[in-house]
Amino acid sequence: MTAPERDATAQVGSGPRPRITARTRSLRFDAGGTALNLVATLGRRHGERVERLDGPDRLLAWCDGVAVRLRDDEATEGLVAELRLLREALYDVGSADLRGTAPGLPSVALVNECACRTAVPAPRLETGPGGVFVPAPELTGRQLQSLVARDLIAVMADPVRRAELRECGAPECRMLYLDGTPGRRRRWCSMRRCGNNAKAARHRGRAGAAPE
Prior knowledge:
It is a single chain. It contains 9 helices and 8 strands. Strands 1-2 form a two-stranded antiparallel ribbon. Strands 3-6 form a two-stranded parallel ribbon. The radius of gyration is 20 Å and the shape is globular. It has helices at residues 3-11, 22-25, 34-39, 56-65, 77-99, 105-115, 141-157, 159-163, 191-209; strands spanning 42-43, 50-51, 69-70, 126-128, 131-133, 138-139, 165-167, 176-178. It is mostly helical. The protein has a single domain (21-121, 134-209), classed as Jann2411-like domain (Jann2411-like fold). α5 packs across α6 (105-115) and α5 runs parallel beside α7.
């Protein structure tokens, strides 16, 4: 199949393909927790996938965004690959819970294995010119995986947070997030992203349906 034929096939019945912009590739830190923020490093999971965790530099940027420090010698392609595997297991557990079904046993086993791999450093207070502060812990790759896995387990163990688990209503997105709004009626991972895109699509649909 030629490239034009692939493009035509992709657009049949689904409208124009969403553009992949710099914003689409940007890391997300609005899912509601460390584990779900890792899940969000794969964008448009059910469409034209966008890999946001595409190397050690992006891994370090992601760690900054979730307020942890990874040892410089730990930021490797191997760790990136391991985190991608953990990411899929986390998504399987979270999405299965939303469907009311059981996740795959390999996913559960991997999350449990990562959670038990090694102890995460305890938070500590330090003092400076501005007073007391809590420095971001410096982690090994195994400690980072343990931190992320334990975060999802904490969500599953907390009835309130577990009830807040949602999936974005945009078909090509389906990002998992925690909805802490009153009434838990939030439909989109972000109103400024998928919410506005949905509004624009409805507007285009109405304009296209209007008589000339």
